[in-house]
């Protein structure tokens, strides 16, 4: 008869994917970001996502090595027998990378984290040699099911140690917005209106593409190093959020929502049914019946005690449900149940046109 502690160990191994962990010992996970960070370490969503995953995976007891790689930056990659590779975002040499990775580690499971189905397009993405796909879109997940591709719904998240309230930073401006201009003004139709309204009460604007905008360049403060994001949010009474229309059609929620809430920010966004379902209790929205100017005035007029309670509630939502550690625990169940890769690798061809014809068309962001 097994002692109680033996049963406890058995349950723990089952939770961690006992078959794989017991067979291989601790495992090695390679993460691949979409782009190589530049010298100024400007904010890049893919880099922030892989950084958060790396820190969370490193806390798990079954992980021996977790490392982030980038296009053309593979030092040490061929020194480790990888068990899993998670690729966040398409990049031009992705096919060669996967082929070389499989030659190096034939038993590796390669998983794609699909956060932008438009780039370069679902037909290209789902024809690649993946063992499974994770996505933050229920629409994409349904397509995966129809195509019999192993899939898992995984939202983005926040690193609460990095994206945290900064009580040591004084609030200097009414509003802040972090994001690109230029083409984003086309794919985010309400963005310009929101920013012009915010400018009237005080706005710090960060990101590329604003220097040539005659209405907003005087409040543009340049690009923001990614490790200064929490500090920029802390300087503002209200953080402004915006989502690409086609992304919202796919039910996607971008990094900035999780990050701003994790910082305990009062966040104002254009209305989105997806955002309302996920965060309606901690976000504020504007729409045709509640214009952005009206909603800004309401948030800026909140009594200090009420504003503090809202900020605390926002932070708690992320801490309780939406950290990268939450995501990694959820990913384990998917990763550890992927079947072993077969050789030779089959050529994957799917009749995607018939399946995606009714899905909203995404635009690269």
Provide a short characterization of the protein structure.
By secondary structure, the protein is of the alpha/beta class. It has helices at residues 4-15, 18-24, 45-58, 94-104, 122-125, 138-146, 184-187, 191-201, 229-234, 245-249, 255-262, 273-279, 292-300, 304-321, 324-335, 352-356, and strands spanning 27-32, 63-69, 84-88, 109-114, 132-135, 151-153, 173-178, 203-206, 236-241, 267-270, 283-286.
Radius of gyration (Å)? 22 Å
Number of strands: 11
Major sheet: 6 strands, parallel
| Mean pLDDT rating | 87
Binned, the helix content reads 25-40%
Low-confidence stretches: 5-14, 16-24, 351-365
**Secondary structure tally, helices:** 16
The assigned structural class equals alpha/beta
How far is the N terminus from the C terminus? 59 Å
Q: From N to C, what is the helix and strand string?
A: HHEHEEHEHEHEEHHEHEHHEHEHHHH
Strand proportion, as a percent range, falls in 15-25%
Strand order of the largest sheet: 2-1-3-4-5-6
The global form is elongated
